[in-house]
Write a structure and sequence with these properties.
This protein has 8 helices and no strands. With 184 residues, it is mainly α. The longest helix is centred in the last third of the chain and has 26 residues.
Length: 184
């Protein structure tokens, strides 16, 4: 049995001292992070406290700079938020206010939202917090009212866990927004 002719030999190009494996190049951080990573500690703390009013959270996120990617920064934000003590959580919640209603919301909506918020604050002792970053603006009012009414049935410890999660989401959404809009 005969086989077909062998393939012709192809000479390898000379490497002239170069490695056959391409050298790894270090990529620079995303442009969003350049300012954040190089800003002064005071500027970064100011920015972070505008996202979430917890000194501990802001310090932990700032102290781990520079961040190689936005995902790394957001992961650090999450980790710092998960580690908030009850005192840290109370500090952050004390600085929160009710989400603003759309300008075209009718008067009854303002009344309903104010009443629900007052009931929530009386029950839990802090402002109602909710992250609306994934909610279409035309649905935010209904979403907020439904969430307040639903969360009013929580016991205080369960609500503390829910509020902590909403603060984590708010801090992360605000951080992304500030980086994109940004001052740093």
């Amino acid at each position: 049995m005969t086989r077909g002719s062998p393939l012709p030999a192809h000479p390898l190009s000379p490497l002239s001292g170069r490695l056959a494996i391409p050298a790894q190049t270090r990529t620079s951080p995303a442009p969003l992070l350049d300012g954040f990573n190089t800003a002064s500690a005071d500027e970064v703390h100011h920015t972070l406290l505008g996202c979430l009013r917890s000194l501990r959270w802001a310090r932990r996120v700032a102290d781990h700079r520079p961040y190689p990617t936005l995902d790394a920064l957001l992961a650090a934000s999450d980790e710092a938020a998960y580690d908030l003590s009850p005192g840290d959580l109370a500090e952050a919640l004390a600085a929160e206010s009710l989400p603003a209603l759309p300008e075209d919301a009718y008067g009854a909506a303002h009344t309903a939202l104010n009443a629900a918020h007052a009931a929530y604050e009386a029950r839990f002792g802090h402002a109602f917090v909710i992250c609306l970053s994934s909610v279409p603006p035309n649905e935010s009012l209904d979403h907020v009212l439904e969430a307040i009414r639903s969360r009013l049935t929580n016991d205080p410890e369960d609500e503390r866990v829910v509020a902590a999660e909403e603060l984590r989401l708010l801090g992360k959404a605000r951080l992304v927004s500030r980086l994109r809009g940004a001052g740093l």
